Amino acid sequence: MSGPQVSSLSDVPQEFQRLLIVDDDPIILDLLTEFFSSLDYQYRTARNGLEAISLLEQAPSTIVITDLLMPEMNGMELISEIKSRWPDIDIIVVTGYGREFSYTDVIKAGASDFIKKPFDLNELEAKLNRVIRERRLRSLLKRSSIRDALTDLYNRRFFDQRLTEEVERATRQDYSLCLIILDLDRFKRLNDSLGHQIGDEVLQALADILKRSIRHCVDIPFRYGGDEFAVITPYVDTWGARQIAERIRHNYIDDDKRRETTLSLGISSFKRTQQSLGEDISAFIQRADSAMYAAKRAGGNRTVIYGEPERVPQFTGL
Q: Is 304 within 8 Å of 265 (Cβ atoms)?
């Protein structure tokens, strides 16, 4: 059975484009704003690079369309500033001065495309459409690199990156951070008796349960590898993480696709020590993993918190 693989641009949601038009010529600004209004784009305008930077600091745009020769901060300086601070923003240069800066100059500086004044609006629209298509392609490639193909959860590669970021943030802001690692009980027996297609369906069902059992836009689920999954849970202590883990376990028990499998879940909290950050994170993962294996040794279908005596799970539905 094939999973929810992202294989084409049609699988990538359309990005809402927010344009910023930068030009010191009011006639050009009026022309471009009228043009982009007719295409139903959301846009803002600035008369020079400094105004553009101020607007981007208030709310980033996705695409900047800028002149080169402007007072206070010219287009090349603006390109450099944008690329250093907002590297995901695409830039189209529209200028009447071709001798000072060549196409190669602006592309090397970080612009996505270049068009000379006087310009044809159809050509500008074509260049804009190409930039938007390339943005979607980059989104597709990024998504493919951090997502598990079968379950569409974040993959192990992204887990390592994101856990480091969350540990650094929790340390800096001094809030609690927990990690849940969970594994399917009797999954090998299921694969051997019913086949890998049924096993894939069970893994996909568990992924869906994880998504609806955790706190939306707070907890982060991953396929850790094989039939092992992980959830990073910021802003809760171990007993708060237990409530999340128990919600996952009970929702899984109630699912009609689990095929007689259950879940063993282990929880650890991040402990700040004098060791290096890498050693801290490694130990953080190892503690959750050890707690999960303790749950398995105790018969499975339970949640264990590392370093605390096991108690009968008391799910409150929170």
A: yes
d(CA 51, CA 249): 53
Question: In terms of Cα–Cα distance, which of 140, 161, 88, 94 is closest to 121?
Answer: 94
Structural domain boundaries of the chain?
Answer: 9-144, 156-305
- Residue 11 pLDDT > 70: no
Distance CA 252, CA 307 (A): 25
For the record, the structure tokens of 143 come out as 């998504």
pLDDT category, 308, cuts 50, 70, 90? confident
**Pick the catalytic residue: 23, 185, 219, 227?**
227
List the single range of 87-96, 180-189, 308-317 with lowest mean pLDDT.
308-317
Region 150-176: what's the mean pLDDT?
92
The residue that leads in pLDDT, 276 or 34, is 34
Topology of domain 156-305, CATH: Alpha-Beta Plaits (3.30.70)
Contact between 100 and 75 (Cβ < 8 Å): no
Q: What average pLDDT is seen over the chain?
A: 88
Query: Catalytic: 113?
Result: no
Convert 253-287 to b/e letters by CB count within 10 Å (16 or more is b): eeeeebbebbbbbbbbbbeeeeeeeeebbeebbeb
Backbone angles phi, psi at 45, to 5 degrees: -130, 150
Q: Hey, what CATH topology would domain 9-144 get?
A: Rossmann fold (3.40.50)
CA–CA distance, 110 with 82 (Å, rounded to integer): 9
Q: For the chain, what is the largest distance between any 2 Cα atoms, rounded to a whole number of angstroms?
A: 77
Instruction: With cut-offs at 50, 70 and 90, classify the pLDDT of residue 315.
Output: very low
